[in-house]
Design goal:
Layout (H helix, E strand, L loop, with lengths): L1 E5 L3 E6 L2 E6 L8 H5 L7 E5 L10 H15 L4 E3 L5 E2 L10 H9 L6 E6 L4 E5 L3 H4 L4 H7 L2 E2 L14 E4 L2 E4 L8 H7 L20 H10 L5 H35 L3 E5 L3 H8 L2 E2 L11 H14 L1
Parallel strand pairs: 1-4, 4-5, 7-12, 12-13
Antiparallel strand pairs: 1-2, 2-3, 5-6, 7-8, 8-9, 10-11
Amino acid sequence: MIGIDIGGANLKIVAGSDVHIHYCPLWRESHLVDILAKYRGTDAAVVMSGELADGFFNKIEGITYIVRSVLQIFPDALFYGIDGSFHTEICPELAAANWVASVGYLREIYPNGVLLDIGSTTADIIPLAKFQELQGMTDILRLQLGYLVYTGMLRTPIATLVNSAVIDGVATPFSTEYFACSGDAHYILGHITDAEYTTATPDGKNVTHEACLRRLARTVCADLEEIGELGAVAVAQAFWEAQRTLVCAAVAKVVADTVPDDVLVGGIGSSMFSSLLGGTDLTAVIGTQAIALPAFAVRELAKNHIK
């Protein structure tokens, strides 16, 4: 059996001990069925958050598209919902349920932990002991409670979290154009590798050191030659300081409210944030599957469900 997490930008698949991350933006002409077809011939357990993509009129249209696409390749697929149950047909409970699968799996092992799952786009911060009351919780409620912080390691526009950087000793405001993203900042600062920068770049160009620096320079309406590498790095550092502060403060609030035994960290930011928070890096416990935690978790839950 494979586990599948279908996001708006990334399709994550856990097969055996391997993790496959495919860039598959659902707001454009989607290649979802074509990618899934590569894994034909096995059983599949599925979670999603891609129903929110703005290529769909509303969430139920997105759910319908995703479920029908999956069933073309995996006619017996199981879909996990925010009600903590598996479904075989289209229903509203399937919307944004990937985090519920992670909690449903981890709570059996860490009943009083707090999970931080920080991936390409968002940070989920979830007290595992509250699983029963969390079931059915929509993303808007999670945003209001601080359980969902909409920033991630790859796709966050730079100017959404910070509005200036000090360049040549001068506080320099940012343009709010989508010139650079968190992936550019983290790549330049050495937080991610080429292989981990799995989404499209803002300008559609390659992932190289110079290309990332040029995108960061445009944030202050400059060519790289105008502000130099130090100026572009200053933009990246200003963003990282703001993102780190935001995420760590959100985790601290949930920790203060719930007093957990441990903070568990998954996603592509697991190593860095587990160090910052003094928590457990789930990649050291589960393996690389923790990078695609919901896909791994829904597969494990489905195995137990079938038993």
